[in-house]
Known about the structure:
Elements lengths: L17 H20 L4 H8 L3 H13 L3 E6 L9 E5 L5 E7 L3 E8 L4 E9 L6 H17 L7 E8 L3 E2 L4 E2 L10 H9 L3 E5 H10 L10 E6 L3 E7 L2 E2 L36 H13 L18 H9 L3 H25 L3 E5 L7 H14 L2 H4 L3 E4 L5 H16 L1
Parallel strand pairs: 3-6, 6-9, 10-13, 13-14
Antiparallel strand pairs: 1-2, 3-4, 4-5, 7-8, 10-11, 11-12
Amino acid sequence: MKRKKTNLDIFNDETVSGVVFKNRSLKKFIISHINQSGNSTITDLSKDLGTSVPKTTSLINELIQDGLIQDEGKLDSTGGRRASMFGLVPDACYFLGVDVKKFHINFGLMDFTKKMIYQKEKVPFRLENTPESLENLIQLIKAFLGEGPSSKAQILGIGINLTGRINHKTGHSFSFFHFKEEPLAEIIQNEIGIPTFLENDSRAMAYGEFQSNELKKENNILFINMDYGMGMGILLDGKVYYGKSGFSGEFGHIPLFDNEIICHCGKKGCLETEASGHALVRKFKDQIKKGFTSTALKKNMSIDDITMNDIIKAALNEDQLSIELISEIGEKLGKGLALLVNIFNPEILILGGALSETGDYIRLPARSTLNKLSLSLVNNDTKLKISQLGEKAGVIGACLTARDTIIL
């Protein structure tokens, strides 16, 4: 049986007025309410809307005709007539997440009920601040749209994560692809034809992790994104904290070390110069040049070709040099974590990103340094965990960025 086409007009940005505007607003409120609660009855919706039951019933029937919500059966009752529960239709529409890494991209498609239905991980890509890299990104997005299980018309929005300074409100990227005055989100949207939204990768990962069932009880969370760089996503009272200019979370650029290593930000002594993927690769190369050996360096492989992922894989295969260097990274990271714990007193610190794949090799030395340098009364209440979602956190966060912007 062929499924009826969904009417997505209530998410259209075109200007309407009068009764049409009022009804569209009420419908969006119903969608938002069901989104938050999971499902709802007409009586509950009527109370929250401040409208009559007949009016709410009429709106519900229109949303059912639009293919956006559905009757999910009767609510259990101890007496009287049982009320129907209404929920979102999973395949009414979709949201595309694009999580851009230094050497690959993760894609994901999320349905209306926030379920990931299709993912494609580690698609080869090289992130460089060049027009060619941007064009490659756009072509890869188009290719994914062509092979996914949904039609382009059903995709309401695209969320794209990029490292560096992102203004999520305007869609500008100030670290990559800032070749024109127009916002990057607008440039990509014009090429693809779907509303597009940008987010900093660490904030998107933090939000994606927060939405997992593991973290429903915690509201104050710091998510450390340990990749080639070092970033942080901050959630306070369950909401992403952006800061006044939208650039919060530059954890990697706290000047913690007295060294002469120039960070890619142009300053010296940043945490990132001693505790990041870039630092790990630099330290590894230095040790190899001093005569140390490692299984990360394959036969006939040039030392210049070594990557962070090569070292991570070697550590997981019990390569001693890789393990020792990751432990050193963890100790340096612990200094920064101690600072965060003393300032924020968070419920939980989550270590995510590529380096978190090393598990206790990085977590235990980080925890040890954290305990030494932070106030005991403060850190006793803070859990230090490894991300449960791993690579999936970013793409889930990207999908949610687009979804929340459009329907909430």
